[in-house]
Design a protein that fits this description.
Layout lengths: L3 H6 L3 H21 L13 H13 L4 H8 L3 H13 L3 E5 L7 E5 L1 H21 L5 H23 L33
Antiparallel strand pairs: 1-2
Helix pairs in contact: 3-6, 4-5
């Protein structure tokens, strides 16, 4: 099995240095701007809330354990992050349809409306930031960023991802990690 030193020498060290530097700059810029969107909705929803609401919208009602597993965080973190979303009416706690004793989390109509407002604002930010890019450049960047984040996520969970395996589209689960590793916890950039 090759060591990390062997693997590093297979690639151009200068390119690897430039890549890690650009990732660090991206993380700092993302944290400074929080990539929250534009206008009045800029930074109006923290990353943890956005990722939780987005997952509930994409995958439907689910329990805390399933939500935590899908986001790669522990159940206690999800419970803590969901509490203010329930308090503000963005998420509802309902009985599981098959097991009335179990509780599932569900995006409320108010939560969906709020999520759509934030998505629209963030889409506008992406338009502004990538102004002058071709559609192919945007698609390539999204594909590569998704692939990069999927590999980071897999590395954190101890699974290797090679080539294009594990890729998801822009709206898929890998998109949640687009701000960087560990971001589902609510720390760091939005």
């Amino acid at each position: 099995m090759p060591t990390s030193q062997d693997m590093t020498t297979e690639f151009d060290p200068g390119l690897l240095d430039a890549l890690q530097h650009q990732v660090a700059v991206f993380a700092r810029r993302a944290e400074q701007t929080r990539l929250g969107g534009t206008g009045q909705l800029r930074n109006s929803m923290d990353r943890a809330a956005y990722l939780l609401l987005n997952r509930l919208d994409q995958e439907g009602p689910m329990g805390v354990k399933a939500l935590a597993a899908g986001m790669g965080i522990d159940s206690s973190t999800v419970t803590r992050q969901v509490a203010p979303l329930v308090d503000t009416g963005l998420v509802k706690r309902t009985s599981h349809p098959e097991d009335g004793r179990a509780v599932v989390l569900q995006l409320s109509p108010r939560g969906l409306a709020r999520l759509e407002e934030v998505r629209s604002s963030r889409r506008q930010l992406m338009v502004e930031v990538t102004e002058g890019w071709t559609p192919d450049e945007r698609e390539s960047f999204c594909t590569l960023l998704t692939r990069f984040n999927t590999a980071l996520s897999a590395r954190q969970s101890g699974h290797a991802v090679h080539g294009s395996a594990g890729q998801a589209g822009p709206a898929g689960p890998a998109a949640e990690t687009a701000a960087g590793p560990g971001d589902e916890s609510g720390a760091g950039a939005e």
